[in-house]
Amino acid sequence: MEGTGSEVAGAARSALIHRVLSVQEAMREDAFAHFGTRLSGAEATSLAQTRILFQLRAAGPLAVRDLAARLKVTAPAVSPVVDQLVRRQMLSRGEQADDRRVTIVDLTPKGRAFIDSALLVRNERLLAALARLNEGELATVVDAFDILSRVNGEMRREERDHQRALVR
């Protein structure tokens, strides 16, 4: 027995979303791999190290347990990677002011420079890909990003409204 029209439409929608996510992931991994080829052995980082650096760039200083939660891993799993980044002077480690048992990690200038370089390479790769598009294809990409930007703005407003409602 075949699915209902709404089930078929739902499956088609899910497939399209999966395609978008797959392309985005492939582009991210390609940029990371391309970035890795530009680094000497001493400068190279693992994917786990890079994920930590990007999380701290996005969130600012975090407790190790909060960093682990953002990465969807355990604190014991993230601690050795943090240790490596501290040894490489890409992260600093300190204590939370009101609870010295809580370890806080943050990017150092060297860690921030590494992330800035990675983002520059990613943007160069994206610019190179966009340069290969014809005008119609480029307009389609712009339209898609405009739509995503609008929806993302709507989601942010809804989240802020929800947070305000919780505070009241």
Detail the topology: elements first, then pairings:
Elements: H1 5-37, H2 47-59, E1 62-63, H3 64-71, H4 75-87, E2 91-96, E3 99-107, H5 109-131, H6 135-167
Antiparallel strand pairs: 1-3, 2-3
Helix pairs in contact: 1-5, 3-4
Structure overview:
- The mean pLDDT is 86.
- The chain is mostly helical.
- The protein is built from six helices and three strands, in the order ααβααββαα.
- Helix 1 (5-37) crosses helix 5 (109-131) and helix 3 packs across helix 4 (75-87).
- It has a three-stranded antiparallel β-sheet.
- The protein starts with a helix and ends with a helix.
CA gyration radius, whole angstroms: 20 Å
Tell me the β content. Answer: 5-15%
Average pLDDT over all residues = 86
Helix content: over 70%
Low-confidence stretches: none
The structural class is: mainly alpha
Task: Tell how many strands the DSSP assignment holds.
Answer: 3
Report on the biggest sheet.
3 strands, antiparallel
Q: What is the first-to-last residue Cα distance?
A: 51 Å
Number of helices: 6
Short recap of the structure:
The protein is mostly helical.
Task: Considering the chains and any ligands shown, give keywords for the structure.
6 helices; 168 residues; three-stranded antiparallel sheet; 3 strands; mainly alpha; 73% helix
